[in-house]
Amino acid sequence: MSTVVALGGNALMRPGERGTAVEQLANLRRAVTALQPLLGEPALVITHGNGPQVGNELLRQERAAQEAPPLPLWLAVAQTQAEIGALVAAELRPALEDREVACVLTHITVAADDPAFDRPTKPIGPFYSADQAEVLERERGWALVSDANRGHRRIVASPEPLEIVELGAIRRLAESGTVTIACGGGGIPVVRRGGRLSGVDAVIDKDRASALLARELEAERLIILTEVPAVYRSFGEHDQEEIRELNRSDAAALLPQLSEGSMRPKVESALDFAGETLITNFDALEAALAGTAGTRVRP
């Protein structure tokens, strides 16, 4: 069976942690232990988020701006893809015995005229005072918004992923039996201009990118690992209900009840994928694979 596994942020960082390399490796060690039932899959591709890591990278750049020039956001995505890929590979290798693991730095095209660029929504990076925000808007052309009384924060677009540039390489690696790490952080967002790829400052949702990858690879299964064990109806209410299985029409009908910044993109990604999607967390993964936990969205 061919499987794409999308690792959520809790695979690398947990609440209250600073995100040191030691912390991330320890969390990944637990994650790899939970992934053991999947490591024998003949074709296995792993994707991951990078939100906290990109935030830390942008913060480092701002603090060191007088000594080294800051880089654009799309290069920060590239840097954290490599950073996280190295960490994931370091913990996977001992568990894979004689199988190889490879990390593919992945670009994903988006449309230059995607409406998301007119409505940036994704907060990234450090917080700024109102005066700093005014200067950044004027000098860098950034869009900033007030964020929970903690200051002003940059927001960027989250356009729809269209094409995985390195798809052929990822497919060949996966078909050869190499456990492949790809589409980190949703991929490096680029637009095609003539024969060139140009990076753009945006953030691609990693679950949407994972669904696109699973679809293009013709994978049989997409597993989205998040912080909660399943999709819930009336989440957070006294009558919340864990949903064990959804057909496609029921999943579509459920979308208005789901949080835009949390579970909704995951269920939308399941609908974008033609195969079976399993949504759960690391603790419930083994039971979810056996059908007694998690939420399955049927083909």
Write a brief structural summary.
By secondary structure, this protein is α/β, with parallel strands linked by helices. It has 9 helices and 17 strands. α2 packs across α3.
Helix-strand layout with pairing:
Elements (H helix, E strand, L loop, with lengths): L1 E6 L13 H14 L8 E6 L2 H13 L9 H24 L4 E3 L3 E3 L12 E7 L1 H11 L2 E4 L5 E5 L6 E2 L2 H9 L3 E3 L6 E6 L2 E4 L6 H11 L4 E5 L5 E3 L7 E3 L1 E2 L1 H7 L9 H9 L3 E5 L4 H5 L5 E3 L2
Parallel strand pairs: 1-2, 1-12, 2-9, 3-9, 4-10, 12-16, 15-17
Antiparallel strand pairs: 4-8, 5-7, 6-7, 10-11, 13-14, 16-17
Word description of this protein:
- The protein is of the alpha/beta class.
- The chain is built from 9 helices and 17 strands.
- The strands form 4 sheets. Strands 3-9-2-1-12-16-17-15 form an 8-stranded mixed sheet, with helices on both faces. Strands 8-4-10-11 form a 4-stranded mixed sheet.
- The longest helix is centred in the first third of the chain and has 24 residues.
- The protein is globular.
- The mean pLDDT is 93.
Give the overall average pLDDT: 93
- Number of E-state strands: 17
Separate helix tally: 9
Structural class determined from secondary elements: alpha/beta
What is the C-alpha radius of gyration, as a whole number of Å? 19 Å
**Net shape:** globular
Q: Give the % helix.
A: 25-40%
Order of helices and strands: EHEHHEEEHEEEHEEEHEEEEHHEHE
Indicate the proportion of strand residues: 15-25%
Low-confidence runs of at least 5 consecutive residues: none
Distance between the termini: 15 Å
**If strands are numbered along the chain, what order do they take across the biggest sheet?**
3-9-2-1-12-16-17-15
